[in-house]
Amino acid sequence: MQLPDYKEARKRTREEIKKENYVINQNAINIGLNKTYHVKTYGCQMNEHDTENIEAMLEQLGFVKEDNQDKADLVILNTCSIRENAHNKAFGMLGRLKHLKEETNKDLVIGICGCMAQEEKVVNEIMKKYKFVNFVFGTHNLHRLPYILEEAFKSKKQVIEVFSKEGNIVEGIPVRRASKFKAYVNIMYGCDKFCTYCIVPYTRGKQRSRDKDDILREVKKLVEDGYKEVTLLGQNVNAYGKDFNSSYKMENLLEDVAKTGIERVRFMTSHPWDFTDEMIDVIKKYPNIMPSIHLPVQSGSSKVLKLMGRRYTKEEYITLFDKLRTIPNVSISTDIIVGFPSEDESDFNETLDLVNYCKFDNAYTFIFSPREGTPAEKFKDMTTLHEKEERLYKLNEIMNKYFLESNKKMVGKVVDVLVDGQSEKDGMLCGYTDTNKLINFTGDVDSIGKIVKVEVTDAKTWSLDGKQK
Ligand code: 5AD
Ligand code: SF4
Q: How many domains does the chain have?
């Protein structure tokens, strides 16, 4: 048994990160024969991509995917810790699985992984109260899944293997991509920013950039396989390369990825601190780098930003924002937290001022959720939940107005859309524009997986309507 330990997780050592290759566990190779699996994913794209790795490893061991969780022999919950409601959702699901195991499927094997598995308190709770969970593994030992499964299937005991410190970068983990034309590519793991509210630096470990040659090899293979879009993933992609003190930075990587000829390049998430002018130049230079930037601001009050440990002021954010707006046709989205400890009405009004200035094209807004072990958990918080909910409501009302405004400007234009598939709207297709706006449109089913021209006919707050040209 290897349990998570926050003291270890917090440490940042100078130890060099090495590369190792994934090796399949030969003893586990037939473990999944005649068995099905279902992986339920919570949280961000990083987790979605981890699930693509988990599914491929399971299939190497003979398991077959089952879309209906209630019918699967093995269920894995890939969890998220970012806010309390993500926690609650996963624990709620565990309750359902317990019932399933007791009532209908006694042999059901249940596993938990992802960010919650890295939390000391969660794992202690699972050991005490959720004994029906068969195994737990963390974000740093994803590649060990075949070994953990071997043990879980052999022993009747709960198997827990969570490394608290990040290990090496493991290359060559198999991947079962959810899409045949859009792919996630990790460019870095972990985060060293330690924003005071955020649990990610604890659950995902120190920043480790992948070797550029491995990234470029992966992207080139995707191009060969007919992929149209890659999204370069990391908690703080702009800091790419800073951990190995290389002169090869995000702007160089972005340029080299664009040069592979892939039709669309996206990247997320960006921290304003590391966004360089060189990056902006590269985005402008290559038409296949999508003019869509996610730039979380978190607050419009410099006082709150300081307490959040964000390393920029409101004015510095706006200066960067203005530079980004010089990218032709750019759309800029953001994340905002309301109700951070000590945020008063005047701080909140500064956030509204910033939103009124930036007129974001899209945003994710949250009420501050204290996370165990982070500095902000201990900050004095005088604002009531009711006040926070009112702030969120007010903020969303204003933001929604701008989303609609930004969408309305597109009516009548012809845009490039990478077609994802059938829309939830009857008989329509859906996809995303270069500026990352969702569009539902009437068109040819054969265009799924292709980039086509679509005329925008109507605008809603969160989506566009259109017809294929
Ligand atoms: N409470 C509320 N929102 C949070 N986020 C991260 N940590 C917290 C927290 N403790 C938000 C930030 C981040 C996004 C991914 O989640 O806005 O950018
Ligand atoms: Fe969390 Fe800040 Fe790192 Fe983003 S940059 S993952 S908000 S610590």
A: 3
